[in-house]
Design a protein that fits this description.
220 residues, 35% helix, alpha+beta
Length: 220
């Protein structure tokens, strides 16, 4: 993913963006010789403090064989995207895409023992299903416990995080705000999220520029 200096997201930004409820992504592992990457859409649990991501897949999933051959994987989360027509953006009228994307480059370890898989599932249940705290997995107990042999856990150790928030930050702030108005006028279902991020980025850069200007004033 190409990240320009004006599109780069910092750690506080991408963490806050994911914490809004973005916990579904596309996990990619390297395929064998002559094959493309193996891709799996999946929910995941990010433990940013530990620098790891937890998830599980059905045991026959072909991504697991790819991980056994090469444990280096990428998990991508992309949201708040919209198409911006060229006539919205002034000369030379080049259309573009607005989007937010966070990519985790990680090393994957398979978790195949029953206790380890139960731990991952219970942590996921606590995150995704907090309204039923009594629903937990114990090896060999209950219906969920009996399903464990058909699953494989994955523990991803994060090596690098790359975040991009592409909302025309390279343009003057006033032009960027005008693009937000365009998104509001068009009002397609996906435009709302893109507009929210565009306005957030605009406010962020405006505040940063104001702070920089105050710091550069010469005392009288």
């Amino acid at each position: 993913m190409l990240i320009r200096s004006w599109d780069r997201g910092d750690e506080d930004e991408w963490r806050a963006w994911l914490a809004e409820g973005r916990d579904f992504g596309l996990l990619a592992a390297n395929g064998g010789p002559g094959r493309g990457p193996v891709l799996v859409p999946t929910h995941f649990l990010l433990d940013a403090g530990r620098g790891e991501i937890l998830l599980h897949l059905a045991a026959p999933n072909p991504l697991l064989a790819a991980v056994r051959a090469d444990p280096e994987v990428t998990l991508a989360v992309t949201d708040d995207y919209a198409f911006a027509p060229g006539h919205w953006r002034g000369a030379p009228g080049t259309p573009t895409s607005f989007y937010s994307s966070v990519q985790f480059h990680a090393t994957a370890a398979l978790v195949e023992d029953a206790a380890g898989k139960a731990e991952i599932l219970n942590r996921q249940l606590a995150h995704f299903q907090p309204e039923s705290p009594d629903t937990r997995v114990a090896p060999g107990e209950g219906e969920l416990g009996r399903l464990l042999p058909g699953l494989t856990g994955l523990r991803l150790t994060v090596r690098e995080v790359r975040a991009k928030f592409k909302y025309d930050d390279k343009k003057p702030a006033a032009e960027q705000l005008a693009l937000a108005d365009r998104l509001a006028e068009r009002a397609r279902p996906l435009d709302t999220g893109a507009r929210t991020q565009l306005l957030r980025r605009n406010a962020r850069r405006t505040a940063r520029n104001a702070q920089s200007a105050r710091g550069n004033r010469t005392p009288s």
